[in-house]
Specification:
Largest sheet: 4 strands, antiparallel
Strand order of the largest sheet: 4-5-9-8
Radius of gyration: 15 Å
Number of strands: 9
Shape: elongated
Oligomer: single chain
Distance between the termini: 19 Å
Helix content: under 10%
Order of helices and strands: EEEEEEEEE
Number of helices: 0
Length: 78
């Protein structure tokens, strides 16, 4: 977490994150099985832009996808 203060004490909060490739045109990046979204965590994007504004972020957690294995994780939105 990074907090920047601008001018008259106007705070801007950033979260450092790791972006995963979720492009639907890239077949090995995501899949949906029984309504659950799985992401291939070995395909990353925006490695030189690792921050997101806190207001744009959603909390998620990842579980191993036992059906596919490897770097695949099931995304759970909080």
């Amino acid at each position: 977490v990074v907090e920047l203060l601008y001018g008259a004490g106007m705070p801007v909060v950033l979260f450092k994150c790791r972006w995963f490739n979720t492009d639907p045109d890239f077949p090995r990046s995501t899949k949906i099985d029984h309504g659950l979204l799985s992401v291939n965590t070995s395909t990353s994007w925006y490695e030189h832009a690792p921050f997101v504004l806190a207001i744009q972020a959603k909390q998620v957690f990842y579980l191993d996808d036992p059906k596919v294995g490897g770097g695949w994780k099931v995304v759970n939105v909080m």
